[in-house]
Automatic annotation (TrEMBL):
The modification 4-aspartylphosphate is found at residue 67. InterPro entries: CheY-like_superfamily (IPR011006), NreC/VraR/RcsB-like_REC (IPR058245), Sig_transdc_resp-reg_C-effctor (IPR016032), Sig_transdc_resp-reg_receiver (IPR001789), Tscrpt_reg_LuxR_C (IPR000792), WalR-like (IPR039420). Keywords: DNA-binding, Phosphoprotein, Transcription, Transcription regulation. The keyword Nucleus does not apply. GO terms for molecular function: DNA binding. This is DNA-binding NarL/FixJ family response regulator. It comes from Streptomyces thermodiastaticus. PROSITE patterns: HTH_LUXR_1 (PS00622), HTH_LUXR_2 (PS50043), RESPONSE_REGULATORY (PS50110). It comes from the Bacteria. Residues 16-132 form the Response regulatory domain. It holds the Pfam family Response_reg. Residues 158-223 form the HTH luxR-type domain. SMART domains: HTH_LUXR, REC.
Length: 227
């Protein structure tokens, strides 16, 4: 066997996982599910939310798998802290609760996925890989809950997230995403360059984005420009 064959068999860099659950038996079972995968490795364990945050400070981790109900700090509280502490860290919530309220709180806290313990052996590995691709992972009942919540908001006349922007901000966003300079946008919309810059700052602030690239990605997702 030559060197090329040896390297071909070697797995890519493993996803380093922080696992937090206050039940040692659950942690052991979840760890077995994850560690048997060639691309996943549990590198740190925690028994509560506060310990999870401490572990994230001292370990290089790519993904945190957090139980929702834990002592000291819950998984939801820990998720909020971890999102602030390590913005690039992906987070999955692991729970026994098929509960819409927990689901929405988890998404607000920065979690990219929500996995039920009852089907963790089936869903967790796929959820971990989806999280690392920046893709949301929700069990079928959660998807139903999200759609129902959206339809309820529409029926009650509440604004959908896409209506967060004013029509003028949408115009500016579209033109930014199409690559126009502030001067060009000002001329196209018959407004001052200063006003364009103010709109751009408002867009970044409202949408929680950092730069032009992220604005462009948002505009594509919102259907304002073609990918």
């Amino acid at each position: 066997m030559n060197d090329q064959d040896i390297h071909a068999d070697r797995p890519a860099e493993k996803i380093r996982i922080l696992l937090a659950d206050d039940h040692a038996l659950v942690r052991r079972g979840v760890r077995l599910i994850l560690d048997r995968e060639p691309d996943l490795e549990v590198v740190a364990e925690a028994g509560d939310g506060a310990e999870a945050i401490a572990m994230a400070r001292t370990h290089d981790v790519d993904l945190a798998v957090l139980d929702i109900a834990m002592p000291r700090l819950t998984g939801l509280q820990a998720a909020r802290e971890l999102t602030s502490l390590k913005p690039g860290l992906r987070i999955l919530m692991l729970t026994m609760h098929d509960n819409e309220q927990y689901l929405f709180q988890a998404l607000k806290a920065g979690a990219g996925g929500y996995v039920l313990k009852s089907v963790a052996d089936r869903d967790l590995v796929a959820a971990c890989r989806a999280a690392m691709r920046d893709e949301p992972f929700l069990y079928p009942g959660a998807v139903t809950a999200l759609i129902r919540n959206y339809l309820d908001r529409v029926r009650h006349g509440e604004e959908a997230p896409e209506q967060l922007l004013t029509p003028r901000e949408e115009e500016v966003l579209k033109l930014v995403a199409e690559g126009h300079s502030s001067k060009e946008i000002a001329e196209l919309l018959f407004i001052s360059v200063k006003t364009v810059q103010r709109h751009r700052e408002n867009l970044l602030h409202k949408l929680g984005l950092r730069d032009r690239l992220e604005l462009t990605r948002y505009a594509i997702r919102a259907g304002l420009v073609e990918p």
